[in-house]
Amino acid sequence: MFVVTKFGGSSLASAEQFKKVKNIVLSDAKRKIVVVSAPGKRCSDDSKITDLLYILHAHLKYSVPYEDIWQMIRERYIEIRDNLRLDYNIEEELDIIRGKLNKNVPQDYLISRGEFLNAKLMSKYLGYEFLDAKDVIEFNYDGTVNYDVTVENGRKKVEELKQVVVPGFYGAYPNGNIKIFSRGGSDITGSIMARCVNASLYENWTDVSGIMVTDPRLVKNPKTIKEITYNELRELSYMGANVLHEDSIFPVQPLNIPIKILNTNDPTSEGTIISNECKDNSQAITGIAGKKNFVAITVAKTHMSNEVGFLRKTLSIFERYGISIEHVPTGIDNLSIVVARDQVERCLYELIVDIKQELGAEVTLYEDIALIAVVGRNMANKRGLCGKLLSVLGENGINMKMIDQGPDELNIILGINNSDYEKAIRVIYENIM
Ligand code: ASP
Q1: Whether residue 177 has pLDDT greater than 90
Q2: 270, 291: one domain
Q3: 240 falls within a domain
């Protein structure tokens, strides 16, 4: 039985945090695979090592003096080592990296050193073997993970080494060159390791006691979600909730390996469990998330509904500009294409001209739209929920510009003005949850 435990940057920011991690790991013999991020912030005005590494890389690339920033990075690791009174010559590893600092140092290699060095320290501190992620996670040259090779590598290495610490966030191409995931990608490493050994559980240790029902910056002390399905989490992550990297679900979902979100600073709190099966079905709504700054491009043409292929032609213009579409609410003789503002900014006027000319349609632009996703596996077949949502928002003076429900009834998407966004989240939380 294997449990994979992954610790995020704030759980590894200092020697104090390392001590908490050791207590957690050693308190359960099943915790044989430990995945670590790079050291995060020790306090709100501190810097994350990964951010410093990006800055270091920019200095090198543009030939700006970089010694101060390198020293900041170096000292963070030495300080952790010293405060743990660890007998380990991390200077040796630091010197190897220092020797490679030049204008052409590959960015992914340099950025990945944040987790590499932290995993070295953690492996010494726990007395576990260091297992380099470059020897497990293999990327195809198109940037996707080669799961067949990766799972085989991971399984074999863990069988041989027994208890391991793996640096998160990166792997390698078949030629050995390092490639990193997108930011927050150590979550994906944890998930991949869980898949390699068919773990009974993937624990993701962070600095919050689970996933909250909604954004705590908008609602004071929101409730914690106890159980959530992978699909619900994806809906919420897509709409802005960011506890876990959204791609970390894919490696574990087919094997139904549950993910538990736990708090390193409060290890006995229950946390959130993510799986295919949830036992508690008492709540209609699991979570509320949202994002601002969408635009709706409304296309109107008389007798549009009779013109076969009109929708396809409209969408193909968006495709030509490489724009990803969020929603397409339709009327009889008009339809609206809702897209994120940053997607269309660069080509908005050309796009509108093309629609007008190619389709002979009128175009109206509605800007400053926010989308809110109300997500819940138990919403399906619940009568009256939509009505209640709309009436509480109306009673609170919030105008609804759009409403859309996914075919599986897992979400309801509401389109409102940007300026109503914060209030709408609070109104929904207080009246419907
Ligand atoms: N250290 C990386 C980041 O800050 C990866 C991670 O922590 O997951 O994005």
Answers
A1: yes
A2: no
A3: yes
